[in-house]
Amino acid sequence: MAGKKPRVKIPKSVSAGDVITIKTLISHKMESGQRKDKEGNPIPRDIINHFEAAYNGKVVFSVDIDPAVSANPYLEFTSRINEAGTFTMKWTDDAGEVTEYSQDVALKG
Amino acid sequence: MNISRRTLLCSSAAAAATAFFGLAGRAVASVEDVEKLITEFASGGTIESGGALQLKTPEIAENGNSVPVSFSVDSPMSEEDYVESVMIMASDNPSPDVATFHFTPDSGIAKASTRMRLARTQDVFAVAKTSTGKLFKVSNNVKVTIGGCGG
Predict the structure, then answer these.
(1) What single string gives the DSSP state of each residue in B79-115?
(2) Domain ranges of chain A
(3) Quick one: pLDDT at residue B147?
(4) Over the stretch B48-62, which tens digit does the pLDDT of each residue have?
(5) Which of A22, A27, A89, B6 is spaced 20 to 30 Å from A81 by Cα?
(6) Which residue ranges make up each domain of chain B?
(7) Which CATH superfamily is domain A6-107 in?
(8) Chain B partners of A36 at a C-beta cutoff of 8 Å?
(9) Residues of chain B neighbouring A60 (CB-CB closer than 8 A)
(10) Do B106 and A35 make contact, defined as CB atoms within 8 angstroms?
């Protein structure tokens, strides 16, 4: 699906050992598969079914998502940062399409 | 036509909610379905009520399309003892699963939040599993006033 643009908020600079909060939002209609169109035909399910966040290649947090998650899924989670590095996040939808986002985290001082 | 802005807002919200839930048919999950999922998730372990797990949901949700839900589990989050996963369920949705969160010791704190859909007033359940095999369960009732027009 075109136009899926993730919005991610990560503190830009942190001290080693800090636990930071990361907020993510991605636009996706999250069609539940429960609805019907005007002719009464079921609208096929189309959701983001998996989210994964990795820091320097190591998975920190992941979610298996079901249709009961709202459209434009919002996720907030935490991560302990011990060294400077890069966050990589991946959203996978029912069609197997993966949206990726990455951002560097620098250490203070 | 003398329609106030408030009335218009309410009726369009109601229409949107109906569009989402109204055609969903009568197939709903039940508490038994939730119990079944929890038993699978627990895979034979003993489940403690409450304990270290806290679930936060609004008492009253005006819009069932987007209900904030968050949870946290008290845990040292060390290599030896951390929260592996937390499953969120809703007993009266067309399908009970909402989402399953997986943590690692690098998560630092076992907490997360998201937004979910609730078809009607119902109980929201959360179960947490730690790496040491402990299980916690809590549930909250959420009143859903679809449309939010007060009748």
Answers:
(1) SSS-EEEEEEEETTSSSSEEEEEEE-GGGSSEEEEEE
(2) 6-107
(3) 41
(4) 888 899 999 999 998
(5) A27
(6) 5-144
(7) Immunoglobulins (2.60.40.10)
(8) 23
(9) 104, 106-107
(10) no
Q: Range with the lowest mean pLDDT among A42-51, A58-67, B29-38?
A: B29-38
Q: Is the pLDDT of residue B136 over 90?
A: yes
Calpha distance B54→A56 (Å, rounded): 30
Count of alpha carbons within 13 Å of B44, Cβ hemisphere only? 0
Architecture of domain B5-144: Sandwich (2.60)
B4 Ramachandran zone, left/alpha/beta (phi>0; psi -120 to 50): beta
pLDDT digits (tens, 9 = 90+) for B77-94: 999 999 999 999 999 998
Hunting for tokens 């939040």 — which residue is that?
B113
Flag whether residue B18 sits within 8 Å of chain A, measured between CB atoms: no
Residue A68, CA distances (Å) to B11, B79, B114 in order: 23, 32, 11
